[in-house]
Design goal:
Number of strands: 2
Strand content: under 5%
Shape: globular
Number of helices: 23
């Protein structure tokens, strides 16, 4: 078959290339994602000042940069992902953008550890709308042969936003403190002004997002049921005790006993870890998050067996998500701790760090995710599991740069190695995201995205920054804390090797397995 420039053969049919409006929508979504990560990552460059003013430990900083955000981002992402599968996605993204921008601005009014933690939790809830809606919109606006590239371009906002956040946060904080040495309006200091300054523009961006057209969903129909908003609150109830016990009880005595046993196990794990580390918020949040995900998945199995089968019942999906989740564990930890490490260990000035690390993060992440997306599409065209090779590269290639970068005393070597580690890790994201989208039916994409981000958040973001901070405290060395990240590489590689073998069969049987699960349910 000879294909022209506007079509490709995919699965026995021709798909038109994405339209100009599709690319316009992608640009808007990238801008949203940039702001998303500015609001999320600005904490990193402000961490030393926040630690000083609020008298925090490294473990508490790790909680603020990780689990305080990640648990609520992950858990609300589940019902919001389901809502994105059935409701108006543009409207949902607009509402979420208003919420997380408001909570970012309120972070600037925080006066202690508790109020800042609550504000970061609110940011997590709002930002949980972003990727499920964006992934679903992109998957409808772009044909499958361009999907990994489009998702990689969208994901570049992660790295651009993360890098720009360092520049903006450092500059605003520095200028404010120089202008108002004793505190400005209402006694606000530089780091507080920085939160407010990056939160307010999101309210204006929401107007632009609201102007986008909602695309027609692809062919397979969404299951009939209640109004989508009613389903959202129903799905949310699957995650929140004691309603989790009610849902389990409806499935029978055995399901209730299993749910109670899981709750007890998570509570015991939390108590043990709190006793070992002294960090109550971190392990309470993580235990709650893991228990809530278990409860939701068990309830989903009863109410939507087809979706459960293609996500939680598909080992290739789970291993892809967890394998990439460990890549993101290292990436999130490096993104959060690189600046504090260089400022405290290498004694590099904040303004230099903001400029170099910020530029490094933006350029390396952008290059990595775009090149990785293109390479994964090329490899996918030659082998069904081709994209998994790119994810493997993302976990193995950063090992040497991390080791060299965080053992050197040279600022130049540190910066170069950070650039390489960031670029290599970023290459995996588009491949992982596209793989999970390819393993489900179109009307399940929002739920699949939320499930994928459970791994990147509850494993990656929830544990990565905290793990480095806690090991730093225990060892008395931030260098040791960062280098501990290398230990996750063998586990991730083992998961991805399994996925490479299992993916072709899993993808070839999507429709049959969904039909069988629906019939059995």
């Amino acid at each position: 078959m000879v294909l022209n420039d506007n079509t490709r053969a995919t699965g026995g049919r021709s798909e038109e290339a994405a339209s100009a409006y599709s690319w316009y929508v992608l640009v808007v979504l990238v801008v949203v994602y940039i702001l998303n990560f500015i609001d999320r990552q600005i904490l990193s460059i402000l961490a030393v000042d926040i630690k000083r003013d609020l008298s925090l430990t490294d473990g508490q900083l790790g909680f603020l940069g990780g689990a305080a955000f990640a648990v609520f981002y992950a858990l609300f992402g589940v019902p919001l992902g389901r809502l994105a599968d059935r409701w108006h996605r543009v409207r949902l993204l607009t509402i979420g953008l208003v919420l997380w921008s408001t909570m970012t601005a309120l972070s600037g009014l925080a006066r202690n550890y508790l109020t800042l933690s609550l504000a970061r939790m609110g940011v997590g809830v709002g930002e949980a709308t972003a990727s499920p809606t964006a992934y679903s919109l992109i998957s409808d606006y772009f044909p499958s042969h361009q999907r990994a590239t489009a998702l990689a371009i969208y994901s570049s906002g992660l790295y651009i936003g993360g890098g720009v956040s360092l520049l903006i946060g450092a500059k605003i904080s520095q200028v404010w403190d120089q202008t108002f040495p004793g505190g400005g309006l209402a006694g606000l200091v530089g780091w507080q002004a920085a939160f407010i300054a990056v939160g307010v523009p999101g309210l204006l961006l929401a107007l632009w997002v609201a102007s986008l057209r909602e695309p027609a969903r692809q062919s397979d129909a969404s299951p009939e049921g209640r109004h989508p908003l009613a389903d959202f609150f129903f799905d949310l109830s699957m995650l929140l005790p004691p309603l989790t016990f009610y849902h389990a009880m409806q499935r029978g005595p055995k399901a209730l006993l299993v749910n109670i046993a899981m709750a007890a196990a998570m509570m015991m794990l939390a108590l043990i870890m709190i006793r070992l580390t002294g960090n109550l918020p971190q392990w309470s949040a993580i235990a709650f998050g893991y228990y809530a995900v278990f409860s939701w998945a068990a309830t989903l199995r009863r109410h939507d067996p087809a979706t459960f089968s293609l996500i939680w019942g598909t080992p290739a999906f789970i291993c892809t998500a967890l394998g990439y989740g460990l890549v993101s564990l290292g990436a999130y930890a490096l993104a959060f701790w690189a600046a504090p490490y260089a400022e405290t260990v290498l004694k590099l000035p904040k303004d230099e760090l903001a400029l170099v690390l910020g530029g490094n993060g933006a350029v390396s992440g952008f290059l990595g995710v775009i090149l990785g997306g293109r390479m994964s599409d090329w490899l996918r065209s030659r082998h069904t599991s081709g994209r998994i090779l790119v994810i493997m590269f993302g976990i193995l290639a950063p090992v040497i740069p991390i080791w060299v970068g965080f053992t050197t005393e040279s600022a130049v070597v540190f910066y170069v190695m950070n650039f390489l580690a960031g670029m290599f890790a970023a290459a995996a994201l588009g491949a992982a995201a596209a793989t999970t989208q390819d393993l489900v039916l179109p009307h399940m994409r929002g739920t699949a995205t939320a499930s994928f981000f459970l791994a990147t958040t509850l494993v990656g973001l929830g544990l990565g920054p905290y793990m480095v901070g806690q090991i730093s405290e225990l060892s008395g060395s931030m260098r040791t804390g960062v280098l501990s990240l290398i230990g996750v590489a063998p586990v991730s590689l083992a998961l991805l090797l399994y996925t490479y073998r299992a993916l072709p069969t899993a993808e070839a049987t999507i429709a049959q397995r969904a039909e069988a699960a629906a019939a059995a349910g």
